[in-house]
Design goal:
single chain; 2 domains; mainly beta; eight-stranded antiparallel barrel; Porin
């Protein structure tokens, strides 16, 4: 009987040792592994934004930011493991409010653009199934809709510029969900450098801050 218990104890110790080794190796694999480099990644995005108008110096206009949103497709083309060309096809809705005129009437502008971003994305080496990125580039947009709503006067069409160009800079985190699926969260500041209104006082330009959420496949 004593021999039986000693044998059982040895078997139990071996089992516990192997179980602990398996957990340790699994933990090391989880925290140390990286997925293989993908030369091309395609994804979908939804990006709420806060946008506002900018005016030149000496123009006394009260400006207010408003909430808009963008959505569409994204594509990353790998140059190497850490360097990518980033582009896509987006529908971007911008909204902002200004108080203009001698009566300081509040006017809310809504514009919708088809945009194509183009930039360089720099990614860190992946650790703990996540990597960090920074991105710098440009966006080119074509207006497809727009209106303005003047206080106590309702909505009406307005003369908006057809094209919008902007300088974009941002960054965030890419979370690896499995070997072919990743999620991106980040921020992008887009500074427009073309005028957006034909009938606007003070030759306004617009800027926005976007909160980026994307899934890459």
């Amino acid at each position: 009987m004593a021999l039986y218990f000693r044998f059982s104890a040895k078997i139990l110790l071996i089992f516990l040792f192997l179980a602990g080794f398996h957990r340790e190796s699994h933990a090391q694999d989880y925290y140390g592994s990286t997925y293989t480099y993908k030369p091309v990644s395609l994804g979908i995005t939804f990006a709420p934004n806060m946008s506002w108008h900018r005016y030149g110096t000496g123009v006394d206009i009260e400006k207010k930011w408003e909430i808009g949103y963008g959505y569409g497709l994204l594509a990353d083309f790998g140059l190497s493991e850490n360097y990518y060309l980033a582009t896509g096809f987006l529908i971007n809705n911008l909204k902002s409010t200004v108080d203009v005129g001698p009566d300081q009437l509040s006017t809310t502008y809504r514009t919708q653009y088809v945009e194509v971003p183009f930039g360089i994305k720099l990614k860190s080496t992946q650790r703990y199934y996540r990597s960090y990125y920074g991105q710098f580039g440009f966006t080119g947009g074509v207006r497809i809709a727009g209106d303005k709503e003047i206080e106590d006067m309702g909505r009406q069409e307005f003369e908006a510029k057809t094209f919008r160009l902007g300088l974009a800079i941002g960054g965030g985190i890419e979370w690896q969900l499995d070997h072919k699926l990743s999620m991106v969260t980040g921020l992008t500041f887009n500074n427009g450098f073309t005028e957006i209104l034909d009938d606007g006082y003070g030759k306004p330009k617009d800027s926005y801050l976007a909160f980026n959420f994307a899934i890459f496949f």
